[in-house]
């Protein structure tokens, strides 16, 4: 991709329907406040080196792609589900500064973005935590527990410790599995209850091995996406 084609900050696309945002998305909406008060150009700066400077092909804005993944973290949903929500949730489209009638990406683009642009260990977590830190500094949120909707669904940004990251990811993986088959727990290895990193790594490897051997569950998009992460 030609680096000159990368925008440092998203801008809402002009549309005769843009006025709908002022009607549908309240001023105190969390996503609206985050988008209006946080300059996401730091995402561009962090990921600049991940793009080819000589290839002329166009690509989605890294800021836009990061925002997709940030919403995945806040709402704890799969790639497919977060993209689907953009079809009917105007606050999501406002957050990505899309025109109301603008079409969404293919969910497979998120997988490619993670593989090609977020190869570094915990880079996504670092970017998310930086966003949360800025939101705290600006008073958008009061703690690292982000209230994301009227039902008070809570999602926490992953801590910067390897043990915590592993536990959070395995937890989300198990949750995705149980939503499909609540009885599948009997097939999984026993969780590591200690604070030992080596034991947690061993548990995660065994969990991965078990799922790799059962494609009837590991190939389901909501589960496969968690394995890729």
* Rg over C-alpha atoms, rounded to the nearest angstrom: 19 Å
| Helix-strand sequence | HHHHHHHHEEHHHH
The secondary-structure class comes to mainly alpha
What count of structural domains? 2
* Beta-strand fraction estimate: under 5%
Compute the separation of the termini in Å.
24 Å
Helix content: 40-55%
Q: Mean pLDDT, as a whole number?
A: 76
- Oligomer kind: single chain
Q: For the report, how would you describe the main beta sheet?
A: 2 strands, antiparallel
Shape: globular
Low-confidence stretches: 1-9, 144-160
Neighbour order of strands in the largest sheet: 1-2
Tally the helices. Answer: 12
| Extended strand count | 2
What does this structure look like?
Helix 9 packs parallel to helix 10 (about 195-210). The two termini are about 25 Å apart. The protein folds into two domains: about 5-155, no CATH class; about 160-229, no CATH class. It contains twelve helices and two strands; from the N terminus they run H-H-H-H-H-H-H-H-E-E-H-H-H-H. It has a two-stranded antiparallel sheet with strand order 1-2. With about 230 residues, the protein is mainly α. About 50% of the residues lie in helices and about 5% in strands. This is Transposase.
Features:
single chain, 229 residues, mainly alpha, 2 domains, two-stranded antiparallel ribbon, 52% helix
Question: Which secondary structure elements does this structure contain, and how are they paired or packed?
Answer:
Elements: H1 20-24, H2 30-37, H3 41-47, H4 62-75, H5 79-85, H6 90-95, H7 108-117, H8 123-137, E1 145-147, E2 154-156, H9 162-180, H10 197-212, H11 215-218, H12 221-228
Antiparallel strand pairs: 1-2
Helix pairs in contact: 9-10, 9-12
